Amino acid sequence: QKEVEQDPGPLSVPEGAIVSLNCTYSNSAFQYFMWYRQYSRKGPELLMYTYSSGNKEDGRFTAQVDKSSKYISLFIRDSQPSDSATYLCAMSLYSGGYQKVTFGTGTKLQVIP
Amino acid sequence: DGGITQSPKYLFRKEGQNVTLSCEQNLNHDAMYWYRQDPGQGLRLIYYSQIVNDFQKGDIAEGYSVSREKKESFPLTVTSAQKNPTAFYLCASSAQISSSYEQYFGPGTRLTVT
Fold first, then answer.
1. Size of interface A-B (CB pairs under 8 A)
2. Statement: residue A1 has pLDDT above 80
3. Is the Cβ pair B4, A46 closer than 8 Å?
């Protein structure tokens, strides 16, 4: 079983829809939870990171962490065609002197105009 | 403009040849990382460096080597010992090794070995 599981998609939604992207994890020692956006043939871009359970909002993006269920989500409101990308979840734990990061495989999102 | 640059964007090599991928950052970050990305797999850590003249193996270091002679630069050499070198390589940095949850990535180098 992988430490971090992420549905690869693809996920297709109409413009303006609310998008929900999810990851589950197995290691309760994870401390930080991150979401990256990666456009085709580009490097990932950090969208948000959070430490605690609950919601964190940044513009149209909301990151949600439920540590009791080992489940994290990224919600995108009023989705735009420019949101079409692959979204990577990541999480880290303290190991060997640093925050060791484990990435999900990514969910490909397509927002249709 | 602060950021991370990687060059070249595309690289083609014959099997058996060593190749070096460049990574430069002007963010004044102490920590730097190299990842490999393959279809259907998450990013996998090859090497990381906390400070100049120090680096540590990641999860898949075999067949790779790095150096960190300057704070800004962290080149990766893919040697002929790497059995499956064709991949998308990503360099990243964070302010310190303790803040590796906040990494910034370069644009990547796509390496094809035939």
1. 62
2. no
3. no
